[in-house]
Structure to design on (372 residues):
């Protein structure tokens, strides 16, 4: 019944947290190194991994929160990871929204410029076959 | 004489586009016409080339009706037009009444003129789901902008240069008509409506189907409420 007391965090859980955090750091760094992940988004993940490491090193944070809210510490742990995930997903949807707005502006500019090029081409050499768009 | 541009957003409209272009040539020969091909996969573009309007602008991929209209607005602005009129490619908009919108706008006391379907003799019967969604939203929008517009979702509308500038920097992606009224209102511009008689669809398929009605209501409702709390300058990152 050790896990259900509020006094301390089980060693196996602590090792798990530390292990997963370090693994996350290594995976993210490797992805950046290979060029699959851009630095600015890697920071999000490294921040998450950093907080997770902090919890592993100072498990008192978790047990204190658990005592405060009258939760078991595992619940607090899962809730924290869930909030991290939510924050990252929210960041991604913000990034996607901004990208789709830029994509729209680019598509419109491209279409208007292509039209202008076509017009100029027809004006300068009327006999060239229309090969644009 | 103001320079008038008719903007036709077209997405897979091969059945009707030629008829609409011919009808424009017949009824309003003085107006320039731009077709914005919103990434059509059918014969729309080649049919337009065979019956060339003033210009054909082809988007590289489908942006939705709002993105296509905004392309037309940008074209109008950059080419110095005084008035832009939206005319659907499906043949539902009565081209022979298009000059009424322009004449009303030329009185210069308003920035947008809407051709309204909801008058006694307009002969327009929308589907049930469309009616419900539209009436709720219509009332909401009309209330927000201070009244006077019964047909807030009609796409048959003419705008002046002031409104062109507003819409070139900000225009909704899909189902843009109602939200556009709120954007205009927040920018300090005004709109009036005049009755027109709409035609039934001449071919092709409508873009609003019943499963979309719920999405339509929620999306547009949310967008409109957000618009009210937005600073008038436009969204972040917009020039």
């Amino acid at each position: 019944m050790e896990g259900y007391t509020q006094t301390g965090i089980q060693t196996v859980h602590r090792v798990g947290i530390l292990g997963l955090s370090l693994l996350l750091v290594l995976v993210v760094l490797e992805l950046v190194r290979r060029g699959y992940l851009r630095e600015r988004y890697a920071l999000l993940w490294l921040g998450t991994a950093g907080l997770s490491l902090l919890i592993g090193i100072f498990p008192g944070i978790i047990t204190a929160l658990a005592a405060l809210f009258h939760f078991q510490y595992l619940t607090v742990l899962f809730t924290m990871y869930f909030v991290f995930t939510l924050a990252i997903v929210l960041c991604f949807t913000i990034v996607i929204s901004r990208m789709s707005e830029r994509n729209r502006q680019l598509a419109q500019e491209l279409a208007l410029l292509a039209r202008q090029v076509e017009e100029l081409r027809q004006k300068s050499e009327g006999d060239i076959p229309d090969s644009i768009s | 004489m103001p320079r008038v541009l008719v903007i036709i957003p077209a997405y897979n409209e091969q059945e009707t586009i030629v008829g609409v272009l011919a009808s424009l040539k017949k009824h309003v020969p003085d107006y320039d016409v731009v077709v914005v091909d919103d990434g059509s996969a059918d014969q729309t573009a080649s049919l337009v080339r065979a019956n060339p309007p003033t210009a054909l602008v082809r988007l590289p991929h489908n942006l939705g009706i709002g993105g296509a209209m905004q392309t037309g607005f940008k074209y109008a602005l950059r080419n110095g037009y005084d008035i832009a009129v939206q005319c659907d490619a499906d043949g539902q908009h009565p081209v022979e009444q298009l000059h009424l919108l322009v004449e009303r706008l030329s009185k210069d006391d308003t920035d947008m003129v809407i051709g309204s379907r909801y008058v006694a003799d307009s002969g327009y019967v929308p589907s049930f789901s469309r009616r419900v969604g539209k009436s709720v939203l219509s009332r909401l929008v009309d209330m927000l902008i201070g009244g006077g517009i019964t047909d807030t979702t009609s796409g048959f509308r003419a705008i002046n240069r002031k409104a062109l500038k507003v819409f070139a920097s900000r225009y909704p992606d899909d189902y843009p008509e109602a939200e556009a009224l709120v954007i205009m209102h927040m920018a300090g511009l005004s709109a009036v409506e005049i009755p027109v008689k709409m035609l039934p669809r001449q071919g092709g398929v409508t873009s609003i189907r019943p499963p979309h009605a719920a999405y339509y209501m929620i999306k547009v409702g949310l967008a409109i409420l957000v618009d009210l709390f937005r600073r008038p300058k436009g969204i972040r990152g917009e020039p």
The mean pLDDT of chain A is 87. Chain A touches chain B through 13 residues (CB under 8 Å). Helices of chain A lie at 11-34, 39-57, 60-69, 73-124. Chain A has one domain: 2-124.
